């Protein structure tokens, strides 16, 4: 399966300054890329020149229990166990492009 996206790629040159262009990128699946992953939360951390995005799965029953605790005014645990689905490390430019694409998608919804 091949996925095609219009991905904004910044072309930075001294003569022209910052310019953006659209390039069609045809992405081929890697060895394990064909396996769908489901996530119902994400956590983001920054490092030197890199953004790390952890996608995770929190059991729906745990989410319901937390919601019930909040509604009833009871104490919510400091820590809740979850399973990491995937960790992705992006350079800052790729993270910026991802944020831009997500914003465009969510504005349409």
TrEMBL record:
<dbReference type="Pfam" id="PF11950">
    <property type="entry name" value="DUF3467"/>
</dbReference>
<feature type="region of interest" description="Disordered">
    <location>
        <begin position="1"/>
        <end position="20"/>
    </location>
</feature>
<dbReference type="InterPro" id="IPR021857">
    <property type="entry name" value="DUF3467"/>
</dbReference>
<protein>
    <submittedName>
        <fullName>Uncharacterized protein</fullName>
    </submittedName>
</protein>
């Amino acid at each position: 399966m091949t996925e095609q996206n219009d991905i904004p790629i910044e072309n930075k040159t001294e003569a022209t300054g910052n310019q953006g262009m659209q390039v069609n990128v045809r992405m081929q699946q890697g060895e394990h890329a064909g396996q769908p992953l489901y996530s119902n939360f994400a956590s983001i951390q920054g490092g030197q020149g890199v953004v790390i995005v952890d996608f995770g799965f929190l059991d729906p029953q745990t989410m319901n229990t937390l919601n019930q605790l909040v509604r009833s005014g009871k104490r919510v645990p400091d820590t809740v166990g979850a399973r990491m689905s995937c960790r992705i490390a992006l350079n800052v430019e790729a993270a910026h492009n991802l944020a831009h694409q997500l914003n465009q998608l969510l504005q349409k919804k």
